[in-house]
Design brief:
7-stranded antiparallel beta sheet; 57% helix; elongated
């Protein structure tokens, strides 16, 4: 039988508590919905410091990538040359064997094959040659021909071994390239994630600060009356000036994008001078200079590990490719830790 009791009325005190709790929850939810999850302005300096550090780490990895890329190019040329040499050597060996084959055919037609010519048919010509020489079964001329083949076989085997070694080095270098590329991309991705945590206003502040560090057009830069280090240095500097505004791209050597050492290499190439690929190697491309010895066109090495390079522009300025997200520009040397200058010979 169904109950007809009236439902129990809720306790007035309990209703009051629940109502207050719900109101507080709504208020907190509303505050959370309108709260800005971005860091406060006081965190901007810390974020910028971390991003700058990541850019520097990315540039360090980029210079190692550049070195591996340069090594890959050299190894590929070595492998190609060795493979061509092996192919030519094999052709020469085939020609020598064909000559022995013709001799064997001629001797067979005249009544038999001279034992010395059996070298052509022997599975182990080295062993046969030793026996034949010992038994005095070959003529002096035939012995010379057989020794030539023997020497060519040894030479060809060495060249093939060298080619295989170079190919292994090439494979290892390409593996290193992939690792360095991944490292650079990882550093840049982390930096971008940090930048994405900033508000639009904070990002605008960073851009403004970056713009203040650099003069954005050559017409606004006071280079003073600095004298070029040489005619070639002047030509390299003039070439670098034509690239102002081009973007920084890791591993790039021009003509429309560059990393720091790529810009230096490209600029000097326009002056007819070949310099190494990486900033570390460029740091050894000539005599070292103190800051007060610098002249226009000299290379300027920054950071203790020589991971960044620019070109002296005069009046305490360098022309360089700064970092990802920036373009080729002038910048005060004081913005970076100076190590030494280099005068390209």
């Amino acid at each position: 039988m169904a109950s007809h009791r009236r439902p129990k009325q809720p306790n007035r005190t309990r209703v009051t508590v629940l109502t207050a709790t719900a109101a507080a929850a709504v208020a907190l939810t509303s505050q959370a919905a309108h709260a800005d999850p971005k860091p406060a302005g006081k965190d901007l300096k810390a974020v910028k410091s971390k991003v700058d550090d990541l850019y520097h780490q990315a540039e360090q990895a980029t210079e190692k990538y550049d070195g591996a890329k340069d090594q890959e190019s050299k190894l590929q040329k070595d492998v190609d040359n060795l493979q061509d040499k092996v192919a030519r050597g094999q052709d020469e060996l085939n020609t020598m064997r064909d000559a022995l084959g013709a001799m064997a055919t001629a001797q067979y037609r005249t009544g038999g094959i001279d034992p010395s010519v059996q070298l052509f048919l022997s599975a182990n010509p080295d062993t046969y040659l030793d026996k034949a020489s010992t038994m005095d079964q070959v003529s002096a001329k035939q012995a010379d021909q057989l020794r030539e083949i023997q020497a060519k076989q040894r030479e060809l085997a060495q060249e093939r071994e060298e080619a295989q070694s170079k190919m292994k080095d090439l494979a290892d270098t390409r593996k290193e390239l992939g690792a360095k590329k991944k490292e650079v991309q990882g550093k840049l991705a982390t930096a971008q994630k940090l930048l994405n945590t900033l508000t639009a206003q904070q990002r605008a502040q960073l851009q403004q600060q970056d713009a203040q560090r650099a003069d954005r057009s050559s017409s606004r830069v006071d280079l003073g009356n600095a004298v070029p280090a040489s005619q070639r240095a002047a030509a390299a500097f003039a070439a670098a000036q034509t690239r102002i505004g081009d973007p920084y791209v890791y591993g790039a050597t021009g003509p429309s994008s560059f990393d720091c050492s790529g810009l230096m290499m490209w600029s000097y190439a326009q002056a007819g001078v070949s310099i190494p690929r990486t900033s570390q190697a460029q740091g050894a491309a000539g005599p070292h200079l103190s800051r007060d010895q610098l002249q226009v066109g000299d290379l300027v090495i920054f950071f203790g590990d020589a991971s960044h390079v620019g070109m002296y522009a005069g009046n305490g300025q360098v022309l360089h490719a700064p970092h990802p997200g920036a373009s080729v520009r002038y910048e005060a040397m004081d913005d970076m830790p100076f190590e030494y200058g280099v005068r390209v010979g």
